Amino acid sequence: MKKIGLMSDTHGYIDPKIYDYFKDVDEIWHAGDVGDISVVDDLEGFKPVRGVYGNIDDHVIRAAWPKVNTFECEGAKVVITHIAGKPYRYVKDAKEVIDIEQPTVFVCGHSHILLVQYDKNINALWLNPGACGYKGFHKVKTILRFEIEQGKVQNMEAIELGPKSI
Q: DSSP H helical segments within the chain, as ranges?
């Protein structure tokens, strides 16, 4: 079993509460729009991290992280990308990756809207942790925390960090 902390859209800022909420996770996954390479450095100094770059990220972050990250975690096939659309209505690039990789867990960011939903059309659990930075239209910073065991996501927690203001 692995405990996962999932975040997105930091836009250069890590809320200090994240370190408390993610203290017992085994890995952190970041679904893009990191904003500053110092975020990657800080997270990697804290826990193992898997991530992707987002549309606001510069060449430094794009050199550190891929556009799409595909891997196995405790028997689950995971795909992370930043821009994907929404369940049942994917952007072309995301749909192509889904069709090729056939994940059981599909992770994205970008919308700043937290949503966890099983999409029967792709046979995958779709996860978007919302946004945990202070830039964007969201009102509340959010993250997800969950476990993966024998290919199954369990004990999902949607966590509100508070208002997006610093």
A: 17-21, 37-46, 59-64, 92-101
Residue type, 71: F
For all residues of the chain together, what is the average pLDDT?
Answer: 96
- Please determine, for residue 165, whether its predicted confidence score (pLDDT) is greater than 90: no
With 0.90 as the threshold, say if the pTM is over it.
yes
What are the tens digits of pLDDT across the range 72-94? 999 999 999 999 999 999 999 99
Write out the DSSP string of 88-137. Answer: TEE-HHHHHHHHHH--SEEE--SS--EEEEEETTTTEEEEEE---SS-SS
**Which structural domains are found in the chain, ordered by start?**
2-163 (3.60.21.10)
Asked whether the beta carbons of 106 and 117 are under 8 A apart, the reply is no
Q: For residue 76, give the nearest of 161, 148, 165 by alpha carbon.
A: 148
